[in-house]
Amino acid sequence: MRTEPSHMAALLGALVTLTLAFQVNTALSLQLHFYSNSCPQAELVVKRIVQQHFSNDPSLPAGLLRLHFHDCFIRGCDASVLVDSTGENVAEKEAPPNLTLRGFEVIDEIKTELENQCKGVVSCADILALATRDGVALAGGSAYALPTGRRDGTISNISDVHIPGPSFSVDDALKAFQSINLDLEDLTTLLGAHAIGFCHCGFFVDRLYNFKGSGQPDPSMDSDLLDSLMKSCPKTIEQNFNISTDPKIFMTETTNTPFKLDTSFYQGVLNEKAVLQLDQELAFTDLTRKISSDYVSRPKVFRRKFAKAMIKLGNVGVFTGEEGEIRLNCRRVN
């Protein structure tokens, strides 16, 4: 039987509505202080251990932010990115975009202590979300109230990993964000995390020497920034990329506060001094440029919007109730 276009549109509309309703209901099933009775010290343990590691490594918040983002973007915030490969399964963390992820040992330490206090109660997905929240606060962001109650996924497969790359256009990145119910403001705001931490040269070396296969640098790149990056990232990296020896630079080269989550990233974007192609493209579309300008002039707005976007990210595709499991070891499904 042939379906009329109007009927097809109605069916698609109903499907989208049901999907969004499911996502909203799932997010609403999370709650503040979920572990207040079952493991009262849970959030304090997470905060203490993150603080200890931050004291020795101020770049830790950047690592946790990236780890959390890569987890939530694939199969939702279910801690699948933490799972190790086994003989019969190659896990998400082995995918090329995930090879530079870090912070796993911090999550392991938190999980070990919580298992000693409250065995089988606190999920790895919540530990990662809470540790990221505490890292954001230590880096100068807001200590936002984070709903918990996530459960851990039981699937982690390299073939599922599709992360927006540093060479994506804003339009392509937006399509990827929309697939997990995030919008253009979320995209622009979450990219503000690039104010802190390091970046491997391999993620942008094409901009320096062979932009879009031209054999030339990206013409939109600031000449002083180009000269500086060429000194740190020689052309040989493009030809012989090795993640273990690849040099690193600060994500926001022009900042004096490389470990502070402030609006320096957006100032760099507006000055056309962003390191990554996707980041720089924020200056070239009207709405993202407006948002960037607003954040530079009103830093408190950025902090508030960043917290809001992080909570929204942390709600993506979560397991709750009887779904999934509570892993006893974050690196292995039970």
From TrEMBL:
Substrate binds at P164. Its main location: secreted. Its cofactor is Ca(2+); heme b. The active site is at H70 (proton acceptor). Disulfide bonds join C39-C118, C72-C77, C124-C330, C201-C233. It catalyses: 2 a phenolic donor + H2O2 = 2 a phenolic radical donor + 2 H2O. It is an enzyme of class 1 (oxidoreductase). GO terms for biological process: hydrogen peroxide catabolic process; response to oxidative stress. Keywords: Calcium, Disulfide bond, Heme, Hydrogen peroxide, Iron, Metal-binding, Oxidoreductase, Peroxidase, Secreted, Signal. PROSITE patterns: PEROXIDASE_1, PEROXIDASE_4. Heme b binds at H194. GO terms for cellular component: extracellular region. The record marks R66 as: Transition state stabilizer. GO terms for molecular function: heme binding; lactoperoxidase activity; metal ion binding. Residues 1-21 form the signal peptide. The keyword Membrane does not apply. Removal of H(2)O(2), oxidation of toxic reductants, biosynthesis and degradation of lignin, suberization, auxin catabolism, response to environmental stresses such as wounding, pathogen attack and oxidative stress. These functions might be dependent on each isozyme/isoform in each plant tissue. This is Peroxidase.
